[in-house]
Amino acid sequence: MHLLSERELQVFLLLSHGYSNREIAALLGVTERTIKAHMAQILAKLGVESRLQAGLVAFAHGLPGHIGDSEGSDHPPDTSADS
């Protein structure tokens, strides 16, 4: 996922956990409009047209949070730069 900026990767990971734009915005302390802009960039960089397709990319790359992932949980992933 080297195509994505650090912030885009944070948003992408939260997307892979099934969070909505509103929920992602609240978790990251930004506006929903900002998340929509990040999502547009993520979709363009990944060459996909929808959140579903982006989620499938996450699944294909083995990112945590998809169904059947032993690391998946009800809690948001740690998206801090320290992890």
TrEMBL record:
Ranges where the HTH luxR-type domain occurs: 1-62
DNA-binding as UniProt keyword: yes
Pfam families linked: GerE (PF00196)
Gene3D superfamilies linked to this entry: Winged helix-like DNA-binding domain superfamily/Winged helix DNA-binding domain
Keyword terms of this UniProt record: DNA-binding, Transcription, Transcription regulation
DNA-binding recorded as keyword: yes
MF term (GO), any: DNA binding
UniProt cross-references to CDD domains, sorted A to Z: LuxR_C_like
Biological process terms in GO annotation: regulation of DNA-templated transcription
Protein name per UniProt: HTH luxR-type domain-containing protein
Biological source species: Streptomyces curacoi
Lineage of source species: Bacteria, Bacillati, Actinomycetota, Actinomycetes, Kitasatosporales
